[in-house]
Amino acid sequence: MGEAAAISTDQVAHVARLARIELTPDEIEHYAGHLGRVLEHARELEDLDLADVPPLAHPYPLRNVFRDDVAGSPVDRDEVLSQAPAASGGQFEVPPVLGEEA
């Protein structure tokens, strides 16, 4: 691997300010080195010959893991409502939201 891409501490500090992340001077120095190595690796990937590699959306073969959508027997509404903390008129009662009147 070649020399790490140069990322200045000023650039790291600037990005940290934009992201509203407080970094100590030691952290800025630390991340400058790490970010430089990340960029160097990205440059190495750009140099790869991928002309014969087909594009793909996912590295692993995918299959549908969902079961068939088959209608089953419905749950008895009165039974479900009997277990609710509050119900009225065949519906669940919930606290008002977004300033709605009860």
Describe the fold and architecture:
With 102 residues, the chain is mainly α. Helix content is 37%, strand content 4%. It is built from three helices and two strands, in the order αααββ. The chain has helices spanning 9-18, 25-46, 77-82, and strands spanning 87-88, 91-92. It has a two-stranded antiparallel ribbon. A hairpin with a 2-residue loop joins β1 (87-88) and β2. α1 crosses α2. The model has no long low-confidence stretch (mean pLDDT 88).
Provide a concise account of the structure shown.
With 102 residues, this protein is mainly α. Helix content is 37%, strand content 4%.
Number of helices: 3
- Overall geometry comes to flat
* Separation of the first and last Cα atoms: 68 Å
Structural class: mainly alpha
Oligomer status: single chain
Largest sheet: 2 strands, antiparallel
Q: Roughly what fraction of the amino acids lie in strands?
A: under 5%
Task: Give helix % range.
Answer: 25-40%
Q: What is the residue-averaged pLDDT?
A: 88
Number of strands: 2
Report low-confidence residues grouped into runs of 5 or more. Answer: none
Blueprint (SSEs and pairs):
Blueprint (H helix, E strand, L loop, with lengths): L8 H10 L6 H22 L30 H6 L4 E2 L2 E2 L10
Antiparallel strand pairs: 1-2
